[in-house]
Amino acid sequence: MAPRMTAFVAALTVLLATPIFFPWFFGMPSTPFGEHLKREREMRGVSLEEVSAATRISPRFLEAIENERWDELPGGVFNRGFIRSIARFLGLDEDGLVAEYALETKGALDVRPTPEHPADIPRNWQPVIFAAIAIVLIVLVGWFVYHRYGATIAAHFHRHATEIPRGAAGVFLANAGAEDGAQAALGGSH
Q1: Which residue among 55, 74, 104 closes a domain?
Q2: Using DSSP, how many helices (H) and how many strands (E) does the chain show?
Q3: Model confidence pTM above 0.85
């Protein structure tokens, strides 16, 4: 072969062997990702509810994936995890489906915006203030009752603690006498 022909054949071989240059020509999926996934699910005769029950993915997330409404999904690793779970359940190549998903979304970062300064969120101090006021009021009322009525309450409890009920006095004395008699019989002394 002539050197020109060899260079031409080598260049043609490289171009034909690399589907990245002409993906539509080499059987790369021409249907959108969601439609492809839906078709695979329907070919297996599986409903969204069955996929949801088996993978524990909400049906609304499954519908969002099949309809390519990416903004309705949680984003990030969750989306790729959903794709892997669906692929595993349907018996498809997990890595291949995740790669298709990445191509479909063009590898965009699926990160939700977060507030710049979470410390700027106003706090609701009302419950804390209410609790502090309640504690102060309870302490003040307790202090007032103790100083105003403490001696009266203590005298009342002291008087009732030293009184012996009328019926109990005879039983008390009888028991005391029995104990004295029992000690005397055993030869003990008081």
Answers
A1: 104
A2: 8, 0
A3: no
